[in-house]
Structures are given as structure tokens and as C-alpha cells.
Amino acid sequence: MNSDYILSIEDNNTDIVLMNRIFKKSIPEFAIKHITDGQEAMAYVESETFRSHLPKLILLDIKVPKLNGLEILKRFRKKEEFQAIPVVMMSSSDRKDEIEKAYELGANSFMEKPRTYPELSKALPALINYWIVYNK
Amino acid sequence: MTQGPKSLYPKEVSLTNCDKEPIHILGKIQHHGFLVACDASNHTITYCSDNISALFDKSAEDILGSSLSDLLSETITQDVLKTTSGKKSISIQLKLKDEVYVLLSHINEGNLVLEFEPLQDSGDPYNYQNQLSEIVAQLNAATDEQEMCDVTATLIKEFFGYDRVMIYRFDENWDGIVVSEARASNLEEWLGLRYPASDIPQQARKLFLRQGVRIIADVKSEPVAIQAFGGKEQDNPIDLSISETRASSPIHIEYLENMKVGASLTAAIISKGTLWGLIACHHYSPKFVNYYQRQSCKFITQVFSSQLVLMESNTWLKKINKAANLRSKLIEKITKDWDIHKGLTQGEATMLSLTEAAGAAVFIDGKLKRVGVTPKKKEIKALIAALQERATDDFVTTQLVEELPEMTALQEKASGVLCLFLSNTKKDALLWFKPEKVKTVTWAGNPDKKVLVDKDERLTPRKSFEAWSVQQEGKSAPWQEYEITAAEALKQDISEIILEKYDEIKELHNLLKVAYEDLETFSYSVAHDLRAPLRGVDGFAQIIKEDYFDHLDEFGQSSIETIIDSATQMNRLIDDILAFSMVSQAAMHKDSFSMNKVVADVLKLLAVKQEYPAIKIKVQEEMPKAYGDQKMVAQVVQNLLTNALKYTQDAENPSVEIGYTQEDGKGYYFVKDNGIGFDQIHEKRIFKLFNRLVSDAYEGSGIGLTIAKRIVKKHNGSIKVKSEVGVGSTFLFNLES
Asked: What is the top EC class of this enzyme, as a single word (chain B) (predicted)?
């Protein structure tokens, strides 16, 4: 696993399938790894595997089981060595309090999940481009 | 009395000040009587009547200063000395100069007063007893007040043989009315006649309370003067308040003479300590009724009084019981569905039945409900407003216009008003109304001319007692004690119910608030949780469309399109539901803003030019600024515009106009279209949730207008619509009413 990859913390199976397809079709240069619950995500982040191979971007769903997205973000951002990794918070809502909280805890972007597949398939590549390709 | 002799009766007394006439110290007794008075402690005779020599062969001068025992035999003296102060008179029969007299003795202000009057009894004592028990029996058998009065008048006339016997009743102003009469057939009828209060002045009424029964044996006879020992009687007048033979005031004598009355008997009817009325007997020639007969008469009045009290309290009790029953029925009704207005005014038992009023009304929480014959709603509200201004709490009147002259419109239906406020804030009230009772009051003589000035410029009582009728207006029947009691009890009940209800509502309100908040959260999360599966539906349909479309036949292809369309519609619906729940959740950030800018932003957001190129959009320049939550108001504009665009796109020369207009003195922003329109009868329905008037040919969730209304309401504003099928609709709204 030496290729550039995106870490997705997302529990919704449909979204996972859709995202995989979009990555395969539109941004094949990036791999995507999914983790489906909060605890697992934290365990992974603290593992040697993670440290030795950092993702280019983290897509973090705000509502995941066991440990919610905001909590994961909070713990993640405490670690000095991970500060440079952009985190995009994703949510089905555009609730102001959630958005504010996310930025406060160190999210780099907040994205309200697009409602339809066509929108999602436009939004994801644009996001990747912005955070990875442009910032290079 | 500390007045000097000159100021005493008669010269200075006139009818206007006859309330001050010292009728108990006239210094005279009636012609038929004799009087001796001695110092109660040493028995020295200090007063005697001028005519005393006719009884004792001693002149007044001889008697004055001597001892009582010099005048009377030892046994009589012994008996007389048993008289005690404050107690009833002692009566002794004795024979003087071959005639039987009744000696009456009483003590008043240190004087032992002895009065002699002839017995003159020709009646058979057995028959007399019978008659008396007959009267009592008949009085007891009477079923109502009127019957009692009639029985009494008739029997007293038979019993004593007066030409005319009247039962005379005082009203609240001490005017008297003849409520029953028994008279000799040749006499004119006085029944129903009214006598002004001044005919029986206040101090005369006071004496009646003390004495009970009084006679004037011969109106025309000259009263007999009383001599005092060692000086003029006027300097130290003897108090004859409880004297039986006391002379009447000259004014009263003149009054009787004007009525052509020769003798009279007056008996007080006392009920619950106050003077209820009189039994007034007139004779057109002299007539004497002896002491024992007068005592019988007194006894009759006592029976009458106790019967009256019994009857009144029975009636009162019955009415109170009835009212109490009715009240519990009303309360039951009210608590059943918590509707005070309905409970008090609808159905068989209403607040009206609690009293003898003709109409009633309940005014609670600004809502007025009426029952029976009442003034108009507007008039009642004006009355309540006027009463709220008054310092006193509850209000009872039988002559409203007299008290509140501006209420002339209410005179006919509500001259009588009983208004009870439910609390100190005087916000809520219960009212009862009694109509004006135009009645003819017949006075015995013109009461306004009761004072006449004779040729000596002295005031005299009126000469004419011919019936004098006056039309009485602006007055209702009186409010009876039981009516007020019942109304007050109802007020108490209702106040308690309101308090109870208030508590319940408060609790309900809290529960509702929690439930409402839960619901908001619920609809919010539901809407969100619908998104993900919907993205799945849409997403996989899109994938099939992208990758496998060519493998599908025509039906398969259109099915995929339908799935995608449905998902889009569902997404829009979720948007609207979210927006709807947001309206009540969101806090308002009020500010002043330009409506023109809001409209321009919304037009841009909706991409109107691109999406609806055919529709002509007209926006009024420089609309007045609005004050409110700009984001929310933008939502209103957006929803109204979306609505207008949607229903106008298929019209010929479609156009949508946005502007500001005045209507009924209020300003409104409006969105007007020339689209399909709808029947105005649906005006209310159109603002209801999920209520769509049109077929599915027009896309929409049926929430947009509901949201608009909710936002406008949150701003205390109003929203309305005018529409006509095929012509178009105009939605108008403002932000504060």
C-alpha cells in the first residue's frame, strides 16, 4: 500500500458503495479506505500502520457509531504529528451549531452531503482536487 | 332637646324641616286621656295634665308637688310602684267617679308616668277571644304576602270597626304604598296609592318602632296641656315617647284633617328589626279603641311579622336551594368540556335561570356570550369598559342610565344591571340584565307639591290626596337579596374553575411544549435520516442509468427515470419539512431591512430569468423597509414567488408582480400573478399543511404556504390571499398587525 489514499470514516453502506464507484471512475489515482465505526477509527489512527502510511485526506462523517465524528476529530487533532492532514467533516445536515463545532475542533472543511448521486460524483472529485492537488 | 322654648313647636316647624319636629315632647296629651307623673325616686308629682280635676276633684296646682300616695289609694300606689324602667307598662283597672279607667304606668327618664284612659269596653270578651284566634288562624293559613295583607286588613276592619284599614308598606326610600285595603263601600279606593316618605317622617318611624300601636281618638279635639311643678313645662318638657295618650303633632293633625279623617289607629309591622310597614286605620268620625284592644292589635302585628319573616325565609330558602342546585348543574356542565361560555349560556340550565333577570352575559378572555334578552354585544362591551373604569368592584343598579348617563342605549333592555367581576383585575365579568319597567306610579296627591304655603306664609301639608299618576321610566324591577347571593356564589365557583383551569392549562402547555420540541427534533432527524436511503435509491438508479441503460427495454428505461424523479421529489419534500420545522425552532433576529433587496436576492436564487424566461416579472421600486428576521422573511417571499411562478408558467402572457399596497388602513407587501387562481372559498385551506388544491400536474409539497404563514405569524403579522379561477392570485402579507 504505497499509493496515496483517502481515509473515510463512514458507516452508511450505500454511501460507501457510491463513494467507491466515484473514486474508481473519476479519481482512480487515489485509493479509498473505509472504517465504519468510531472506535475502530481511533484504533486505526493510533496504530503503526497509520503512522507509517498517512492518508492524504480524511473524510469524517459526523454521525458514526460508538464514537461520533466530532469526538474523533477532537482526539485526532490533539496529536501534533497529524496536524497537517486535512479533515473534511461530512454531515447530512447543515446545522449551524455542528458546523461551528467542527471548525472549532479543527476541521478544514464542512460538507453537507449532496442529496443525489450526480451531485456527489461532482462534489467528491472537486474536494479531493482542492485539498490535495491544488495544495501540493 | 336643648332648644329654648321659643324654638319649640309649633311656630317654627315647617314641612321641610318636619324631620326635626320634636314630636315626643309636645307637652300635650290627647283629649280622652289624663296624665300624672312623679319623680320615680321620691314620688313627688312633677307633672299633670290640665284636665286632671275631672278625675280627682283636685286642681292641677293642688296635685303638683304632693306625693303620689296623696292621690291614689294605697293598694293602687303599691301596684303602680312596681313599674320598672325599661319594662312594659303596667295596666290597672280602676273606678274613678263611676267610670272604669285603665291606668297605665311606665318609667321614662326618671319620671314615673301614669296615664288614665277610659275602658269604654262594650265587647263580649268571649267573642273577642274567638275573633282574635280567628285572625291568627287565617294569618297562619295565608300562602303569600299579599294574602296575608288582605286577610289582615279585612279582619282588622271587622274587629275594630274602622271605616278604612290599609296595609301600608315602605319601600327602600321610605315611600309608602298601600298594598291592601278594606274600606267602607262609600269610600274611594286608595289601594296602590303611594305616599312620599315625608308623610311619615323619620322620627315618627322611630317612635313606631318603640310604641307599636297608636291611636288618635278625635282629630278635631283640642289636646290637653301638661303642667309642670315649679315652672313652665316647656322649660323642662316631659318625654312622652312611650306615652299612650300623647298628642299628635299639629302637622300630622292638619294632614289628617286635610284627608277628612276623624280618628286613626296606626300599628307598626316590624320585620327583622326594621319597620316593614304599617296597619293604618282611618275613621271619618271620632273613634276610641281601648288599651286592651290596642294590645290585641299589637299582637296581630306580631303574628303578622313573624309570619312574614317565616314566609320570607321560606321563599328565600327555596330560591337559594333552587339556585344552589342550578349552580352545581352549571359547574358540572362547565367542567365536562371546560367551556365556561358554553356551560353558562347554552342548554336548558343557564346562568340566567339563577336570577329573575331577563338576560345574562359572560365575558371571559375577551369573549362575550349572551343568553336571554340582552343589549347588543358592542353595548355590553362598552358597559363593561365603563364599569372597569369605576373604583368599586361589583355593580348593582336598577337605574343604569341614572348612574351612567352615557348608557342610554341600554335603558330598555338593561336598566337593571348586576355585574360581578371575577377578579380584582376586572378583566372577566358575569352580568345579568333586567329590562326597564315603565310603570305608572300613583301618588296620593302630587308628591312634588306636598309643601304648600298658606296665607300666613306658613308651610302646610298638601290638601289634595287625589290620585296623582306619574310615569316612571328608566327603572327595572329590583334585585332581590337571593338573586345577588346566588350570582355571587356563581362568581365564586367560576373564579375557582378559572384558577383550576388556568393551572391545568399551564400544565398542558408545558407538556405540549415538550411534545412540540420533541416533534421538532423528531421531524428534523427523520428528515435527515431519510436523506441517506434516498441517496441510495437515487444513486443506484443513476448507476443503472449510467452503466446499464442500454441493456434495458423502453419500460425499464422509463422506470429508472421515474425512480430518479421520485427521489428528487422526495428530496424536495424533505427540504420543505426541514424548513417548516426550522421556522418554529429558529430564534428570530429582527432588524430593519430593504424588501427590494430581499426580493432581488430571491429572484436571483430562484434563477427566475433563466428558469422562467416567459414570465414577466415586475417589482415595485422603493417598497417600504420591513422590520423582522430577514432570512425568514426572505423565505416567505421565496415561497410566495415559487408559488406564483409555478401556477403562472402556463398562462398566456404570464406575469408576476411584487409590491406594496394599502388595504383597510394597513400596509401589505404583495405577490400578484395572473396564473390559474383558485376559488376564494379555499382561502383558509390553502395555508394548511399538505393541503394542495391542484392536481399533481403541479409539483409541490403543500408546505410552502404553511411555512409562509407560520413565519408571518411569528412576526405578529397577517397573510391573506385573493384569488379567482383563471384570473390569478394575490398574496398579501405584513409583519405586524
From this structure: transferase
